[in-house]
Every structure is written in structure tokens, then in C-alpha cells.
Amino acid sequence: MDFGSLKIIPVGRVRKENEKTWLELYPEFSEAVEGLREGDWIKLILWFHESDTPERKSVLKVHPYNNTKNPLKGVFATRSPIRPNPLAIYAVKIHRIKGNRLYIDWIDAHDGTPIADIKILVERLDCPKEMPIEEWELDIKKSRQVGEINLIPRKDEHLDELEEVSPDEYDALVVEIGPKTTVLTAEELVKLIEVLEEFYDKLPVEIKDKLRRHEGRSH
């Protein structure tokens, strides 16, 4: 898949056998799988190679679902495999990981379809849902990951209108757990900190001593 200076290098193939469907990743990309877990949702990007012909790529209108009873629509308003660049995007769940194989639910791609890329699904970015904090307001560079939790703060530049905003109205932090996203107000953030401190105080003394020693070594 090479068009000028833009190249798509397959990282694997879709495989189907009886009722099983899996993603067979090439050995050279095995390290790229690290961090994926069973139960994760991913965005799967495929190259519909059977539609990669000059004739099919020049078609700009199709009958949806390949049914001539449906009125013609522009390909960008459909999920047709016939399009200028025959890319297909799926949101799928990983049910099992075995080596370089990611087992998923059935999809309508043919056996042997090249895999262009895999990305973790993020509800905030990939799902049509209104967010109280606009993307440009987030301080992405200061985001932190703790276990499976991703914390993204709001930018902290001074805004004059904040003087009129109460803590329970000011959305301060985006929290992502896997693909799920929620937003905490400043008031909720303070309550969360208080709860976490309470939980920390209840840890066994031996565990807290080990944590302190570990923190001392890390500094």
C-alpha cells in the first residue's frame, strides 16, 4: 500500500476460521501489543485491499449496503468499502490474547484483510458525547497515569470570570478508566482527595513503612 510519499505498512491480517475471528499480528510488531489486555476496546483500522483498484477508488457515489433500492449517496456518507482510500474503522473488544493473536467478535472484513493500525478506544475522543470541558481547555502535557486511571487536568491559566464560578460548577479534571470517561468538578476533586487520604490512613503500618522506604529510594 504505497501512494507517493505516503505509505501504509500492514501490521498483521484479519483471520477467520469457522465462527472465530482474530487479528494475527506480525512478529516484528509483537512489542506494540504490550499494554493491551483482554476486555480492552480498540479502534481497528483495516485496508480493504480487494477494493484497492483504480476503478473502485474512482467511485464517489454508492447505493448503501450495496442495495440498488437505496438511493445513491456520497461514499463519505456511508460505510461502503468502495471509496478513494479503502480504509475501514471498527470498534471491537479484545476477548482473548494469545501471543500475537487478538481474538475479537465477528466483523464483516474478509479473511486476510490487512491491518493498518490498532489504537486504544477512548470514549472522550472516539464516542459522540458532549463534554463539559473542551479538548483545547485540557492540559494534555500534564496528564498522569496511575494504574489504569488517566488523569487530565484543566489548564490553570487565570480567567477573570472564574470569580463568579462556584467549586461545584467548575469542571477541573477529566478521569479516564479504560475507554470510560468522566469529569470531576473542583468540589468533587477535593472530596476525592479526602477519601483517598482516609483510605491511605487505613493501610497497614507495615505497608506504609514500605511505601515510605520505596519513596525515599526513588528520590
UniProtKB/TrEMBL annotation:
InterPro entries, per database record: TrmO-like_N, UPF0066_cons_site, YaeB-like, YaeB-like_sf, YaeB_N_sf
Pfam family, one: TrmO_N
Assigned keywords, A-Z: S-adenosyl-L-methionine
UniProt superkingdom: Archaea
Record-linked Gene3D superfamilies: YaeB-like
UniProt domain TsaA-like: residue ranges: 8-130
Keyword Oxidoreductase: no
The family this protein is said to belong to: Belongs to the tRNA methyltransferase O family.
Record-given protein name: TsaA-like domain-containing protein
Source species: Thermococcus onnurineus (strain NA1)
